[in-house]
Amino acid sequence: MKLSRSTLSVALLAALVAPTAHAEVALDVIGGSEVSFEGLVQADFYSFDTDTIDYGADSSSDLDGEDSLQELRRAELVLKGKGPGNIEWVLGYDAKDDKWLDANVKYKFGNNANHFVQVGQFKQPGATLEELSSTKNNDFISKSSITNTLGTPRRVGFQYNYGDVNWGLTGSYFGRELTRNREHGSGYALRGYWAPINEAGNIFHIGASYLDKDTDGDVIRLRARPMADMVGTRFVDTGSSGLNRSDRASTIGAEALWVRGPFKLQAEYMGIDVQRYDGADDFSGDGYYVSGLWNITGETWGYKAGVPTTGLPDDPAKGLWQLGLRYDTIDLTDGAVVGGEMDSITAGVNWYWRSNFKFMLDYVMVNQEKGVLEDNPNAIEARLQFYW
Fold first, then answer.
1. What is the CB neighbour count within 10 angstroms for residue 297?
2. Domains and CATH numbers, the chain
3. Considering the entire predicted model, what is its pTM?
4. How far is residue 258's CA from residue 272's CA, in Å, rounded to a whole number?
């Protein structure tokens, strides 16, 4: 299923002219369900100052020798419904990537938004805190290497969540991704979190997760982009057959978040173990990141369902300005499997303007090693974002 350019244009125009474009656009009440429409459009630009590998190529098979890359990153269109009763549903599609997003039905028990069951496609508890947060409020243009490489995001399954405003326990069983020819491999995931401090402008959160899944096809490939989401070529890569004879893969995750006024510190660790057979050695890899954000215009963050939330600017005309810094590392080398290691530092500035626009500018320094080989690209990355 693909949306035509004219369909996407009409959707964007409807959002632009809507009187309440900063929030979801209310459509109608159908069958006792209040239906609304949301959207997110992102366009990215990357410029590399080291190009020994053709990072400016559109894909690993379409090398062009360019040192820059620009493309539409996301074009997400989402329908949401509330009701009848305690039922909520969502149906999302990314017209850029031609894939389904969240597509599920949730039933909440009583008035507790953190006590529910959910069926359909949704982000798995075994994903990172960064992945579970809203994409439109990403702190940096590229998500962390553990999020993109080791995390298991949306899958079709069943989930049960029990908790309150300060804590939660989640368990899920999942299968394949809804979109054809995407991720496969059934498994289960668990996540628990606790915020012993949770008040306006003062939040402390810790959490942990565990996920176990079938590698589906007895092979798993782990690889990391050089902190640029649309790059087709990866230097850090276990290879298409480097982890064959693999039976199951399990990941553990640990997360921490601290908010104090306009400052936010966030850190996550994730490790993966791949169980192999027929004499092949098991494989282990891991990584982590530590990031800091400063809202120089004074705003703070909120907290909902175990993730931080970003509010609107206090002064819409001035906007919300952020400065950010992140250190990120991942290691995919273990024994005979030399996938490589990558360390990166990202410095960025974000500007949330009024209620619908966000501009991002990052400078990324990347160091990669794979055996005796090295590749160390630096990049300037920019993103223009419109959402409603």
1. 16
2. 5-387 (2.40.160.10)
3. 0.90
4. 25
Q: 5-60 pLDDT, tens per residue? A: 444 444 444 444 444 445 679 999 998 999 999 999 999 999 998 767 878 766 55
C-alpha dist (Å) from residue 145 to 229, 270, 285, 366: 10, 10, 12, 12
Closest C-alpha to 257, from 220, 309, 191, 329: 309
Integer Cα distance of 106 and 87 in angstroms: 6
At 96, the amino acid letter reads K
φ, ψ for residue 118, nearest 5 deg: -140, 135
Q: What distance in Å separates the CA atoms of residue 219 and residue 247, rounded to the nearest whole number?
A: 8
Compute how many other C-beta atoms are within 10 angstroms of the C-beta atom of residue 183.
16
Facing residues of 328 across strands? 289, 344
CA angle 325, 292, 130 (to 5 degrees): 100
Residue 333, CA atoms < 13 Å, CB-side half-sphere: 12
Which of 62, 60, 105 has its CA nearest to residue 87?
Answer: 105
Q: Which is it for the CA torsion 139, 145, 146, 150, positive or negative?
A: positive
Nearest to 89 by CA among 47, 67, 119: 119
DSSP class of residue 244 equals: B
Q: What is the CA radius of gyration of the chain?
A: 21
Q: Burial letters for 268-284: b for 16+ Cβ neighbours within 10 Å, e otherwise? A: bbbbbbbebeeebeebe
- Residue corresponding to tokens 């508890």: 125
Residue 314 token pair: 């206090």
Q: What is the pLDDT of residues 53-104, one digit of tens each?
A: 878 766 555 555 568 889 999 999 999 999 999 999 999 999 999 999 999 9
Query: Among positive and negative, which fits the CA dihedral 149, 153, 156, 159?
Result: positive
The residue among 272, 212, 281, 211 whose CA lies nearest residue 246 is 281
pLDDT tens digits, one per residue of 93-144:
999 999 999 999 999 998 888 999 999 999 999 999 999 999 999 999 999 9
Identify which of 335, 253, 257 has the alpha carbon closest to the alpha carbon of residue 288: 253
Question: In the numeric block, which tokens belong to residue 305?
Answer: 């369902």
Q: What distance in Å separates the CA atoms of residue 23 and residue 300, rounded to the nearest whole number? A: 19
Handedness of CA 37, 44, 122, 259 (dihedral sign): negative
